[in-house]
Model the fold of this input.
Amino acid sequence: MSQFNDRERAFETKYARDEEMQFRIIARRNRLLGEWAARLMGLSDTETEGYAKDVVRADFEEAGDEDVIRKVLGDVTAAGVECDEATIREALGHKLVEARRQIIEASN
Done:
């Protein structure tokens, strides 16, 4: 029975680690997307940092990516930048790959 408990604990630990890693990757992806959008809008370095944090916080509004996409699309459009949802979704995908690479490199 002890072997079963040890194995169960190992699976739980791995699950928790994987979930934490996924959370960090998504948060990094959102920050990178915020920096990308800030460059499109022509924000200063200080404004870019604040805006990227706002994009990360926007992800806590609801499950999924829709809240982040809605925020960035609204902000970019309000700034007078020609951009559509498909462009933001494409950037989101690219930033996910970049975020995963950065997190994995930082872990090693």
